[in-house]
Design goal:
By secondary structure, the protein is α/β, with parallel strands linked by helices. It has 6 helices and 10 strands, in the order E-E-E-H-E-H-H-E-H-E-E-E-E-H-E-H. It folds into 2 domains: 7-140 and 180-215, Spore Coat Polysaccharide Biosynthesis Protein SpsA, Chain A, CATH 3.90.550; 144-178, no CATH class.
Amino acid sequence: MRDGRRILSVVPARGGSKGVKLKNLHPLAGRPLITLTGELIAGLGWFDRAVVSTDHDEIATVAEGCGLSAPFRRPEALSGDRIGDIDVLTHALSATEEIDGTRYDVVVMLQPTSPLRTAAQVTETVDKLIAEDLDAVWTVSPTDLKYHPQKQLILDEGQLGYWDADGAAIIARQQLAPIYHRNGAAYALSRDCLLVQKSLMGQRSGAVIIDEPMVSIDTPQDFERVEAELARRAGAS
């Protein structure tokens, strides 16, 4: 519990993955990927409940071994690679509340594929949601202005053009407003945002900006990048 709010953490970890087979069990720093998320949650200590949403028994077993609960299995209809986070989180919240016989005020999604997150970043995300009475708070990373939408190009039947018509007027970086992209480290949502608004962002949303390198794992090369970053951080500490 935090500031009187009952908080549920949901760790989505389906068995199917295309880039890396059984990605959530793939070793990272000598442990299954999902273990790093479980250990981080256990270290925080203020989650009222932390569950894994999975359709895979081995993932459930490993998750339970690192402190997560696996009180249900995700139905097949929610296990494809085109299923959105809202459906997965709604199912996890409803299933957990039915099992626990209680109501949770805040849902925090912590994807195993973002293992570079820190406990402080997760705490800041939840505290911002509560303190500012927001519908949702996402962690984001600054996007290099070289990749700003107003500098992007498209090909329409072979004709080169700007993705944004205003891009032709951009001369200097100073003309570009800062932009950000989601990094997957943490998402905190109010109960109303998820169940009533049926949104991952809601009408009133905020962000926690992370300047440190972040990697959302999808390929074998991403595992290598994370291993290198973890080694760099260990050497700097």
